[in-house]
Amino acid sequence: MTEATKAAAEQSAPAAGAPAAAAPRDRAQPAAGRGAALRVEGAGISFGGFQAVRGIDLDIPAGEFLCLLGPSGCGKSTLLSAMAGFVQVSKGSLTADGATVSGPGPGIGMVFQNSEVLFDWMTVHQNVTFGPRMRGLGRAEQNRVADEFLGLVGLRHCADRYPGQLSGGMRQRVQIARVLANEPSVVLMDEPFGALDAQTRQVLQQETDRIWRASGCTVVFVTHDIDEAILLADRVAVMTAGPAASIKSLYTVELPRPRDASDPAALRLRDKLRQDIAEEVRKAMQDQGLDQDTEAAAGTTAGQDAVRLDQEARSA
After folding, report:
1. Facing residues of 67 across strands?
2. Which among 191, 210, 189 is positioned nearest to 257, based on CA atoms?
3. What is the pLDDT of residues 161-206, one digit of tens each?
4. pLDDT digits 0-9 by tens, 105-121
5. H-helix or E-strand containing 253?
6. Where are the extended beta strands (E) located within the chain?
7. What does pTM read for this prediction?
8. What residue spans define the domains of the chain?
9. DSSP string spanning 186-220?
10. What would the pLDDT profile of 124-137 be if each residue is shown by its tens digit?
């Protein structure tokens, strides 16, 4: 584990005496009508003279599952880091439950792309009880929390194992359980299945949908995968190409859960999302002075996105 990821994990643990969240509830219905768990108004994020994102406006209701989708390098993870409090907005505002996000806190949990944030010298049980222990909960309550959330992710039988003894998919589920054990109202997920094989990824997508509906929390999920966004999200926010990326379009996914990727409505939405992203990739390539059909373009991030989207279009 790097020092940065260790610090992020420790900072995100709830402070002692923090109030517990409401009991888990079924979240099968849309979040319409609920108050905003996260509100982003005119937000911009800059690093020195580089503007990563600008003019971001998002109201994310409590209990919603929102996916951020866009070309490589468009600032999705940067925006997610601002929501987590790891970086600050340079312009505009970002609030969680009405309070300005000024740093990591107990109400917002983060699931990273890899499992480096797990403490490899601790057992699975000890990893999951880390947050409750920092909150000052007694041993019996720590054990209850670990049992509840390891059960939720299907890993009670692995409680005494160490992260190094688990598969990649199992480690990601431990990471999800550890975040949920802190009882956050908002869970941020930064391409959590990006490094996994296709079969494991599909299983964890289904598990994430089930866990989210059972937990009742708000989720903001970063992905490059259009199908993943359709399968998981209440809404999909498509970002423009960076730098100075913004929200290009916002789609409501009006499909029953669990979802079928072959549903005609899902296929129509897939085409719209693919067209939006392809348009942004082409713009990015034009800004770089590249031609989509050249071998040089295929060697760039934007070119790789364009080639992949073109291949998908031909095979559809």
Report:
1. 221, 236
2. 210
3. 999 999 999 999 999 999 999 999 999 999 998 878 888 889 999 9
4. 889 999 998 877 899 99
5. none
6. 36-47, 50-61, 65-69, 91-96, 99-100, 108-111, 186-190, 218-223, 235-239, 247-252
7. 0.81
8. 3-261, 262-316
9. EEEEESTTTTS-HHHHHHHHHHHHHHHHHH--EEE
10. 999 999 999 999 99
Residue of 6, 16, 31 lying closest to 185 (CA atoms): 31
Question: Check: CATH 3.40.50.2300 for 3-261?
Answer: no
Question: Closest Cα partner for 79 from 234, 208, 246, 218?
Answer: 246
Distance CA 169, CA 199 (A): 10
> What's the CA gap between 306 and 97, in Å, rounded?
38
Q: Would you state the structure tokens that stand for residue 298, as one six-digit string? A: 């295929």
Asked if 129 contacts 142 with a C-beta cutoff of 8 angstroms, the reply is yes
Q: Provide φ and ψ at 95, rounded to 5°.
A: -125, 150
Query: Which element (helix H / strand E) includes 31?
Result: none
Contacts 24+ apart (CB under 8 A), 268-272: 269/230, 269/236, 270/226, 270/227, 270/230, 271/316
Is the Cβ–Cβ distance between 84 and 162 less than 8 Å?
no
Structure tokens at 192: 């959590």
Cα 277 to Cα 271: distance, rounded to the nearest angstrom: 10
